[in-house]
Design a protein that fits this description.
Blueprint (H helix, E strand, L loop, with lengths): L2 H23 L51 E6 L13 E7 L4 E6 L5 E7 L1 E7 L5 E7 L3 E4 L4 E5 L6 E7 L7 E2 H6 L7 H8 L3 H11 L4
Antiparallel strand pairs: 1-2, 2-9, 3-8, 3-10, 4-7, 4-9, 5-6, 5-8
The structure holds 2-acetamido-2-deoxy-beta-D-glucopyranose (NAG).
Main location: secreted
Catalytic activity: 2 superoxide + 2 H(+) = H2O2 + O2
InterPro entries: Cupin_1, Germin, Germin_Mn-BS, RmlC-like_jellyroll, RmlC_Cupin_sf
Length: about 220
């Protein structure tokens, strides 16, 4: 092989490695135009949403994070999303936000975001937060107003308000639609239901216990 050819091959391998590297660090695919405001009424299925014509300011705007969400529910917490479903202008841009409010004692129960890393900024109060690695190591900390914590993409995580006053965070995600699977609801509230004999064996418990847990999640669907 000529020296010039070898240099070309090395360059191509390097470019391919860089491309793979960039793909693994960015959650959503890169964009190919300035804006692609989601058109959810289009019948065409693509990875994301097709673009509507004539973007306007309202397509990029959302006021829904300005007020605390109601936390008078089973878990004492409420997630208010600000993703492509609320802000169609986020389509193809690879970012989104949420606000999470917590009553005293409130829990955002263990869940994962299959498509995004999350970073939270504490607006009010204090939270006991943590994520669990694939080696089952719990990485946990108490975070206070003004502080930031990170939950790596795909890992199970939670936030709990152990304080006596309400707490709130603003969350950022590197996906226009991070997706959420809450472990309890996913396994015990799925429709059609996950078979009892899968859950009895998985959790090493009896059918009665499985049915009891399922009954707690059934009304939340
Ligand atoms: C929560 O509080 C709001 C406003 O006070 C009320 O309208 C709603 O019914 C309550 N929800 C539950 C589940 O208690």
């Amino acid at each position: 092989m000529a020296a010039v050819d070898r240099v070309l091959v090395v360059m191509m391998v390097l470019i391919a490695m860089l491309a793979i590297g960039f793909n693994t660090v960015s959650a959503d695919p890169d964009l190919l135009q300035d804006v692609c405001v989601a058109d959810p009424t289009s019948g065409i299925m693509v990875n994301g949403f097709t673009c509507k014509q004539n973007a306007i300011a309202q397509d990029f705007f959302f006021a829904g994070l300005s007020m605390p969400g109601l936390t008078n529910n089973t878990f004492g917490s409420l997630v208010t999303p600000a993703n492509v479903m609320q802000i169609p202008g986020l389509n193809t841009l690879g970012v989104s936000m949420a606000r999470i409010d917590y009553a005293p004692g409130g829990l955002n129960p263990p869940h994962t975001h299959p498509r995004a890393t999350e970073i939270v900024f504490v607006l009010e109060g204090a939270l006991n937060v943590g994520f669990i690695t694939t080696a089952n190591v719990l990485i946990t900390k108490t975070i206070q107003k003004g502080e930031v914590y990170t939950f790596p993409k795909g890992l199970v995580h939670f936030q709990k308000n152990d304080g006596k006053v309400p707490a709130a965070v603003i969350a950022g995600f590197n996906s226009q639609l991070p997706g959420t699977q809450v472990l309890g609801a996913t396994l015990f509230g799925a429709s059609p239901p996950v078979p009892d004999n899968v859950l009895t064996k998985a959790f090493q418990i009896g059918t009665e216990e499985v049915e009891k847990i399922k009954s707690k999640f059934a009304p939340m669907k």
